[in-house]
Every structure is written in structure tokens, then in C-alpha cells.
Amino acid sequence: MNEYSDVPNDRSASPMKEWLNTKNGTIFLGDSLDYLLDIAEEKSVNLIMTSPPFGLVRKKSYGNEDADRYCDWFRPFAEGFKRVLRDDGSLVIDIGGAWNKGTPTRSLYHFKLLIMLVEEYGFHLCQEHYWWNPSKLPTPAEWVNIRRVRVKDAVNTVWWLSPSPWPKANNKKVLSPYSKSMESLLEHGYVAKLRPSGHAISEKFSHDNGGAVPPNLIAIANTESNSAYQAYCRENDLPIHPARFPAQLPEYFIRFLTDPDDLVVDPFGGSCITGAVAEQLGRKWACCELSEDYVKGAAARFTTDAPLIPKERSEPYVIYQPGSVPVDEAVTTTIADGGKSRPKRR
């Protein structure tokens, strides 16, 4: 078994089987390599939307095992992704960073993975996204709360790749509400001019396009604590998957990069949130998961009529500028040894 997850590198001896079928998709129990390399048709998938096991082992919140071998573990999956994706399809990987064991420095494993996918497997990096979780607790606690030499780690990288430079996409499908200042500009007009930065703002800038093109910073709080899924798992004594992403994350990429009836696949299905969102949006889908307990819990995603995607969500998150709280620098000085020594308890 691989140290980074419950997923082995070797092909499973147990054949993959269909666990649950819905109107639009299937949950498969078994090794996703079986699906990627044998079951799925070549160039049949429009979008792979997934969050693979991260390159870490959470022995302590402030230090993890070396992740250098992560790329070797990932290679068979890269081969499968390349096989099943259409030329105009997309590969979206949500992947969190890791800390080097025992020091407040960052692992490069997720950057190495990106470079490997591009240089060895011919994928093109369409755009990097960053998922900011406003509800993330201040972690890692050792470096953030105790030694006070780092700020909290609240962003995951999300790599958007494709077999070609021209995957299908349309940002008009994921517009955000205009800001108050932009609404005022649209109401009162804008004088076309050349900005000091050199950008020429034309009269077209004041045209109402129905919403603003969102940035590649995706702000979604991960606060699924009282959902039907968790209640079902507790009632049936099933483990709750520890690494669920919020429904709005796969929703964003499914809307942005696919059309109804397209095929969406999550090879590391977990609680099958990708499949549930795809079902709600009218896409065909397949989720693969190796753990039978997680698959049993994932069935709850399809036993309720409660929508996963909220209808009202125009209220923006607030992020304050760092340094907004006044500090007396005569008292609060930098930590001279960079946190090398652990402070004594008060």
C-alpha cells in the first residue's frame, strides 16, 4: 500500500464493480486504474475533476513525511488520464501543499507533479487556480500559533490542464456579481482613456455583460458540518471522509468546462461530491473509490432531494488587509531565531 493514501500503486486483485447507478452516472468500487486503463473508452471523458490524496502523512500538523516519491506514485494515473481525456477535455486537480518535516518550510511536491504532467505526459497548463477556504483554522498550529513565524495556510492550488492548448471553456458560464463601484460605473458611464499602467480602457468597458469575469482565486468556505451526508454516516456508523471539498468547487469547473450530457470523472471519488454535483447539473459522470466504507457513505449523496448547490450565494467573503490591527513594535519584535527554539509555555 502506498504511504500517501489507501490506494496502492499495483493494480488491485479485486475486480472493479458498479456499486450504485443513477440516472446520469455510476459509483465504482475498486481501483480507478482499472477504470482509466481498461473500462473507460479512449478519449471519451470531457473533464476529470478530482482531489487526489495529498503527498503527506499527518503525523503532526507542523511536519509531514517526505513527498518526493509522490510523482512516481502518480505516474500510472497520469497514463490513464492521458488515455481517457478528449483532446478538448480538461484535467482539474485540487491539491494541497505540505510542510517539510520538522521545519517551517514548504514541500515542492505539487509543483513537481505539475512539471511532470506537462513535461513528461504532454499536458498543457491552461491556468492555475487557488482555492481560498475562509473557514480554514489557523494551521499548522506549531508554526502559526505557537512559534508565530508563519501565517495560516488557507489556500489549495488547483491545476487546470488539458491534452491540448485549446480545451473547450466559456467564462460566461461562471460570472460573478458586479462590485458596487462597477455597478456605479455602468449606471453613470465611463470615459475611455489610457491608464498609467498602459492599459487602454475603451468605451466597451462600460457595457453590461451580465456579471464580472471571476478571478482565479476561488473563495469557498468548506463548512459542510450538518449535511445529510454526515448525518447518514453517523447514523450508519460509517467513517466520514476527511478530505471533502465543497460542492461549489466542482460546480465551478463543471459549468466552466463542460456542457450538459458531457462526461465528468473523479478517479479519487471519496464521498462522491463530484458525481453528485454532476448529477444535479445534468452531466454524465463516474466516480471511483477504493474504500467500501466511503462508497457506502457516498450513497447518501443521492438519497435526498436537498440541492448541493446553494441558490443564493451573492454575499461576498471579507478578507481584511494584513496589518490592520495596530501593533506596538517596541514590544512586538521579530523572532530572532526564526522560530527555531520553541517558546516556553506561559
Shape: globular
What is the CATH C level class of the largest domain, in words? Alpha Beta
Q: What is the average of the pLDDT values?
A: 85
Class from secondary-structure proportions: alpha/beta
Poorly predicted segments: 1-8, 57-66
**Strand adjacency order, main sheet:** 1-2-11-10-3-4-6-5-9
What is the number of helical segments per DSSP (H or I, 4+ residues)? 9
- Give the proportion of residues in helices: 10-25%
What proportion of the residues form beta strands (DSSP E)? 15-25%
What gap, in angstroms, lies between the N and C termini? 43 Å
Can you tell me about this structure?
- It is a single chain.
- The chain starts with 16 loop residues before the first strand and ends in a 48-residue tail after the last helix.
- It is built from nine helices and eleven strands.
- The strands form two sheets. It has a nine-stranded mixed sheet, with helices on both faces.
- The N terminus is likely disordered.
- Helices cover 24% and strands 18% of the residues.
